[in-house]
Each structure stands twice: as structure tokens, then as C-alpha cells.
Amino acid sequence: MNDKQPEVVLNLDHITKSWPDKAEPAIDDLSLTIRRGRIVGLLGPNGAGKTTLLSVLMGLTPADHGTIQLNGQKLDRTRQALRAIAGLVPQHIALYPSLSGRENLAFFAGLLWADAGKRRAMMDQGAQLADLGENLDRPVAHYSGGQKRRLNLAVGLLGEPELLFLDEPTVGIDPQSRNFILERIRQLREERGLTVVYTTHYMEEVEALCDDVAIIDRGRILLHSELATALAEARGVGQMRLRLAGPASASLLAELQAATATLSTADSRQLDLCLKEAGAPLSTLLALIEKDGNRVEDLRYGASLESLFLSLTGRALRD
Ligand SMILES: Nc1ncnc2c1ncn2[C@@H]1O[C@H](COP(=O)(O)OP(=O)(O)OP(=O)(O)O)[C@@H](O)[C@H]1O
């Protein structure tokens, strides 16, 4: 890692993206910073907008609004500067099934490196990382889900990225392969100082792997903090502190009071809520706040990451 480079690698500023024929935007005025050398878990249920966000970042689809800065420099719509230093491991396996693992590595390394020596070195590194043994020379069509995922990861690393985007890289694989992938990612960060954005809907992966967590739902970031902070705050079950952009109206306070067990206010903008046992989901509270023309600036929550997610979104992570 270059110490002279800014601490914030990526700065996403008010990104919005709608797909045609969809009533709601897939990404809704989303702002997020990614710090260098961190593994950031982007945690959200199916349809939350994780893949769309990575596609916008990599320039695979344009954003409707908003800007992205890489190392303090604004990116143009092609995202060329980002693509030059980033690797994407897509959610859907992007390999040629009729080619062997080795042939896939050779094909993708050939697209990236003109120098034959470098190409060979990167292929060897990829083969080592995927750890496929004799299967390396068998067609990918015969691989298990875990073997395909491992090769998919190795291909994503062939360009020696500084920044790695992983889109649900462990979906549908056995626990052993999952551990293998998590272990490799940890190792890459240790050895190369890689910055990783890891999308998942598995809470336990975030807890096991990530330094920071950003919870995404309906295209919005509901919480972004260091994992340790999120977990430490999770200890006082059912407690939530909201900081509003503007003073809460009397009618809003009454509605929030009705929706939660207790409500106290340090000042007209800071609200401490204790949820009822069954719990009004945070999405309900946010809707009340929005309806009142107000907005949440900051949110601290006390619960496990699992119940934290439930309360933030009103839904379970797993369908
Ligand atoms: N190419 C597309 N065309 C139209 N709508 C899309 C497209 N890609 C995603 N969407 C929609 O955008 C929303 C967000 O989807 P996205 O795939 O980004 O979420 P996700 O968090 O990655 O979910 P998953 O875990 O299921 O992949 C969904 O409503 C989805 O149907």
C-alpha cells in the first residue's frame, strides 16, 4: 500500500440509478466512502441494490445522478480509471464451461497482459489460488459449485487489482469452499493491502471477515460503521438513538411514541427509542419521519447484527 495515497479510496456521492419499468430506483441517493485496505461488507437482502451498485461503480451501467471519486479524483462515466485498478468477481459465474480451468485462466490473462512472462506468472498465481489440483485440466462444466467459485475468484484477481469487488462470492457452495474463499480474501488483504467491497446477505460472513459494514436496503444505506462499533452497539437490545436533520414536530413525537415502547428526547433532534417486544421495524419509523418532512442524519442501534438488520429493514436477510 502506498502511504501517500488518500485514506478514502472511493467516495460515492448521492448516486441514484433507476432501471426502466421499475417504480422504485434500484439505488436511491446513496452516499458511501470506502477506506483503503479495508474489507467492507455491503450487507443487504435480495433486490437491495448491491449488484446494481457494483455495476454503476464499474461503469457497466450509467448512474442517473451522483458522482464517484477515486483517490479524490472525479471519475467520468466510463469509469476507466477505476477499471484500471479494480477487479470484479461477478455473482454469476463468468467462465467458459467447455474450457478447462487452466484454459480459462489463460484466456482471461491473455486479455489483460501483453507480456508473455507476466501472463504466465499471473496464470500460475491464479492456479495456485484456485487450488483445483488435477481438476485444473478438466472442463469447468464438470466442476462443483465451490470449484467454480474459486476459479471465478482467481480470474477476478488476474489483473492484480488494488480494489476488489466481490458480488456474493459464496452463494450456493459448501461450507468448506466458503471458508476457503473467506480465508483467501483475508490473506490477500494482509499480503497486498487490497481494499475489498464484499456484497452478501450472509450476516455471519460479515462478522467473520469484514472491518466495516454498510447495510443496504431498497437502494439506500441504512447504516455504515466499523463492524466492531456496530457489534458493540448491538449489546443493549432494542435500544435505538436517532439524530434528525430538523426538530421533531409534536405530532411526529406522538406517532413515534405510539409505534415504540418508550421515547425520550435529549433535544428536539435527538430521539432515544426503545422498541416494543414485537418491534416496530425501523422502516415504519423512518416512514413516519419522512412523512413529517424530516430525515434521519445518524442512527445508533443496540441489538445483534441479525436483529439490527431486521429492525432496519423490517425483513429477514434470508428469503
Ligand atoms: N438489468 C436490470 N434491469 C432491470 N431491473 C434490474 C436490473 N438489474 C437489477 N434490477 C432491479 O434492481 C433492483 C435491485 O437489484 P440488484 O440485483 O441490484 O439487487 P441485489 O441486492 O444485488 O440482489 P441479489 O442479491 O438478488 O442479487 C431489483 O428490483 C432488480 O429487479
Task: Sum this structure up briefly.
The chain is α/β, with parallel strands linked by helices and 319 residues long.
β content, as a range? 25-35%
Using DSSP, what is the number of strands?
14
The level-1 CATH class of the largest domain: Alpha Beta
- The DSSP helix count reads 11
Shape: elongated
Radius of gyration: 22 Å
- Kindly identify the CATH topology of the largest domain: Rossmann fold
On the 0 to 100 scale, the average pLDDT is 87
Order of helices and strands: EEEHEEHEHHHEHEHEEHEHEEHEH
CATH architecture of the largest domain: 3-Layer(aba) Sandwich
Relevant CATH superfamily of the largest domain: P-loop containing nucleotide triphosphate hydrolases
Count of spatially separate domains: 2
Helix content: 25-40%
Q: Residue ranges: pLDDT <50 for 5 or more in a row? A: none
| Heterogens | adenosine-5'-triphosphate
Our measurement of the CA-to-CA distance between the termini, rounded to an integer number of angstroms, reads 39 Å
Q: How do the strands of the widest beta sheet line up side by side?
A: 6-7-8-3-9-10
**Main sheet record:** 6 strands, mixed
Structural class: alpha/beta
